[in-house]
Design a protein that fits this description.
Elements (H helix, E strand, L loop, with lengths): L1 H11 L1 H16 L6 H26 L7 H14 L20 H23 L5 H20 L14 H8 L1 E2 L6 E2 H19 L1 H11 L1 H6 L4 H27 L10 H11 L11 H20 L4 H26 L1
Antiparallel strand pairs: 1-2
Helix pairs in contact: 2-13, 3-8, 3-11, 3-12, 3-13, 4-5, 4-6, 4-11, 5-6, 5-11, 7-11, 8-9, 9-11, 12-13, 12-14, 13-14
């Protein structure tokens, strides 16, 4: 009985055990890793990735996928950055654009992400194109649009820099001073995670999302308007990518058309490792957040102790395959 309880505990909390083991292992090799500065850096790096992963989680829970996430992040980062440069910056994207409240470009960028999400949702829900193909097409189109936008005169594909201080502080500022300060970007990520948790667990949209992912035919029979909810879900995901793009531009102080490249794969991997089922119907916000933290710790921690980035890729790949294999094994057992 004790063995069964132990196995059940290990299965239920495996993701958290992996996180603790990672931290202990890296700290044992270099105790400086467990410093306030290191933990703060990990949280900052995880913030935008968490928001992207939460957007992807919406889609994965419906048994879909979204390959366009990273490119939408890049497009929205460029949109926000191009309209929020300092008036005195010599290479302004829009030389004659008057200074405006930063909330306007931010809203436009998030709206652009939402529109991309709606397009994904319509193509999947109304035209019945498989999510992999639909979002792959959107990924390519968005990257092309973003590249044309950045290539406009007088920018000519140059990196967009010289961003206003009142915008950059969103990504670099914090409450308090010194190593115990709490970055704004981390607070935003926590707030977004809480809102998503509420949507997942306390709303009709969340309930229907899990129902669609669990059994789409049963969801249709029970009276759920599957097409409508799929469009809602992809739209929310696109909005989250848009917000993440804005925060990335603020955090790094600039943007290029290559921003967000491969972010969708990291987000999908974090979701899968965090317990979001690839077959749909299963997934939690805490699991997604921990999945993001695991991959951030792998990237940051292994670099911290001097391990080659190539080994980091190998380790990440092994974790991803093991997580999916474990998920499929549970799915097969249920059937």
């Amino acid at each position: 009985m004790n063995t069964k309880k132990l196995q059940s505990f290990a299965s239920q909390y495996a993701i958290y055990i992996v996180l603790v083991v990672l931290i202990i292992g890296i700290t044992a090799y270099n105790p400086a890793f467990l410093s306030i500065n290191s933990l703060r850096d990990i949280l900052i790096q995880s913030s935008t990735r968490t928001i992207i992963a939460l957007g992807v989680a919406f889609v994965l829970i419906t048994a879909g996928t979204d390959l366009s996430a990273g490119r939408i992040v890049g497009l929205t980062a460029v949109i926000a950055a191009s309209m929020l440069q300092k008036a005195e910056y010599a290479a302004r994207f829009f030389p004659d654009l008057p200074q405006m409240q930063y909330i306007i470009p931010i809203a436009l960028a998030v709206l652009a992400g939402l529109i991309c999400g709606v397009v994904n949702g319509v193509v999947v829900a109304k035209f019945h194109v498989p999510p992999f193909i639909a979002t792959l097409g959107t990924m390519v189109i968005v990257y092309g649009v973003n590249s044309l936008y950045v290539d406009m005169e007088p920018n000519n594909s140059q990196p967009i820099a010289g961003l206003r201080d009142d915008f950059k502080i969103i990504g670099t500022g914090s409450i308090g001073e010194g190593k115990f300060s709490l970055p704004y970007i981390v607070l935003i990520a926590i707030f977004v995670a809480f809102i998503v948790w509420v949507v997942f667990n306390k709303t009709k949209l969340g309930k229907n999302m899990y129902a669609i992912g669990g059994n789409i035919q049963a969801a249709k029979v029970s009276g759920i308007n599957v097409a409508k909810y799929l469009i809602y879900i992809y739209a929310i995901a696109g909005s989250l990518y848009g917000l993440a793009g804005v925060l990335e531009a603020a955090r790094t102080g600039g943007a290029t058309n290559n921003y967000g490249n491969m972010y969708e794969l990291d987000a999908i991997a974090a979701c899968v490792v965090g317990g979001v089922s690839t077959t749909g119907g299963i997934g939690t916000v805490p699991g997604v957040v921990v999945g993001v933290l695991i991959f951030t710790i792998i990237n940051y921690g292994l670099t911290f102790i001097g391990i080659s980035p190539y080994w980091q890729l190998i380790i990440k790949g092994i974790i991803i395959v093991a997580a999916v294999a474990f998920d499929m094994r549970k799915y097969a057992a249920k059937k």
